[in-house]
Design goal:
Blueprint: H1 2-18, H2 20-23, H3 28-46, H4 49-82, H5 85-90, H6 98-115, H7 118-132, H8 136-155, H9 162-169, H10 175-200, H11 216-243, H12 247-265, H13 275-281, H14 284-303, H15 305-317, H16 320-330, H17 336-346, H18 357-368, H19 378-387, H20 391-397, H21 399-420
Helix pairs in contact: 1-3, 3-4, 3-14, 4-7, 4-11, 4-12, 4-13, 4-14, 6-7, 6-8, 6-10, 7-8, 7-19, 8-10, 8-18, 8-19, 9-17, 9-18, 10-18, 10-21, 11-12, 14-19, 15-16, 15-17, 16-18, 18-21
Length: about 425
């Protein structure tokens, strides 16, 4: 009874989010209600409120680390934007062709996400697109491509996606091997959608860039903030690797660092845009939406439903590639982190040793499958909030393209493996 109730609540909540454009109710509202109701059902059926609360607080620690990371990254990007730092980059992109611009943005998002991570990269690149494109419809298509490219770029790097990082830390994969085995399939995941969406912009050109009105002093400050901001974002994965602290710790330290820099820049004159103002402009409803979604998924995980699902797939499909592909597509509906965690618990290292093809394939599918639905990945959720992309619009226009890219990556991986072996 409780199992049916929590599934029904999750499905209804999911539908409410999907129908945001019909109900006109902000997606954060049903997400928060769904998250709380799922945990309420779990607590009532457990019969042990203390144990249930302890489980909730355990998950809240993981969720909070993601939310603080997101908050920090969005604040740094907002500071760069406020100081016209992105103008320095956009001025160097001289092409007027929307098609060529899409190729450039996809290329940058793909490789930058391997250095940073797909979440931070998406925030940076969508902010960049907002500077280059004036039409809302164009920005929606470009932002959607950023999601696909960033998720694809994150899959082949140990630092690019949280699931790949989990497998790396867990000893299922090694850094050099995952790069070698997944970079070509990941390129396919990114390249095919880029070509499909690029065809839509054939022959189209962007509007003439606006003439910059910034003074030399303001440009100097913009360069300082841009350099410091990008350097701060690049420092986060390095800090994590050296200290083994969660990524949000490095991000929070860099937020403090940026606060000092912007204060020193403007100490000699009155300036009405400091870090406090940047925090005001950060999209808080999107962060609350993310909180609600992650609470709901963590309740399903605590209920044991995700582990049961993984076991069911194992006994039913009985094929590593089918299991990996299914888990990848499921990661578009529920968070890929608990799915990968369940798989790590199901298969011990004696069954699938380090660098076994199953772990490589799992990193590819769960890292890229989330692009099929906009709330299927952290990058998608962040972009959805920044550009206010409707769930239904993405489902109609982009989902099939993302699935084609996903299938292309799977096919390339299988072909590559057949050639190597």
């Amino acid at each position: 009874m409780a199992t049916a109730a929590i599934i029904i609540v999750f499905v209804i909540g999911y539908l409410a989010i999907a129908l945001e454009h019909v109900t006109k109710v902000n997606k954060a509202s049903p997400a928060l209600i769904t998250g709380v109701l799922c945990w309420t059902i779990y607590l009532l059926q457990s019969g042990d409120s203390e144990a249930a609360t302890e489980s909730l607080l355990h998950h809240l620690g993981d969720i909070s680390s993601i939310l603080f990371f997101l908050l920090g990254a969005m604040t740094i990007v907002e500071l760069i934007d406020a100081h016209d730092g992105f103008d320095i980059i956009t001025e160097r992109i001289t092409t007027r062709s929307k098609r060529k611009l899409l190729y450039i943005i996809s290329f940058l998002a793909f490789f930058l996400s391997a250095l940073l991570d797909n979440l931070t990269t998406s925030i940076v690149m969508v902010s960049l697109c907002a500077k280059l494109l004036q039409r809302k419809e164009d920005r929606l298509w470009f932002a959607s491509m950023v999601i696909i490219a960033a998720n694809a770029g994150g899959a082949w790097s140990p630092l690019g996606d949280v699931t790949t990082t989990m497998l790396w830390i867990g000893g299922q994969i090694t850094a050099l091997n995952i790069i070698k085995m997944l970079i070509i399939p990941s390129i396919a995941v990114c390249l095919i959608p880029t070509l499909i969406i690029g065809y839509r912009f054939k022959g189209q050109e962007t509007a003439k860039p606006l003439v910059s009105t910034t003074t030399d002093r303001e440009r100097k400050h913009g360069k300082i903030v841009l350099s410091a901001g990008v350097g701060s974002l690049l420092f986060v994965p390095f800090f994590k690797t050296v200290t083994h602290l969660p990524p949000f710790m490095g991000m929070m330290m860099m937020v403090g660092f940026m606060w000092i820099i912007t204060t020193l820049i403007h100490k000699r004159k009155k300036y009405d845009y400091d870090l406090a103002k940047a925090l005001e402009r950060v999209d808080s409803p999107s962060i609350l939406f993310f909180l609600g979604i992650l609470l709901a998924v963590s309740a399903l995980q605590s209920f044991g439903l995700l582990a049961s699902l993984a076991t069911f797939l194992n006994t039913t499909l009985q094929n590593d590639y089918l299991i990996g592909s299914t888990l990848g597509l499921l990661s578009a509906i529920v968070d890929n982190v608990p799915l990968v965690a369940a798989a790590q618990g199901m298969y011990d290292m004696s069954t699938y040793p380090t660098d076994h093809y199953f772990w490589e394939f799992l990193a590819l599918t769960t890292g890229t499958g989330g692009s099929a639905i906009i709330i299927g990945s952290a990058a998608g959720v962040a972009v959805m909030g920044i550009e206010h992309i409707k769930f239904g619009w993405y489902l109609r226009k982009i989902s099939w393209i993302a699935i084609v890219g996903f299938a292309s990556g799977v096919a390339v991986f299988l072909l590559q493996r057949s050639i190597i072996h």
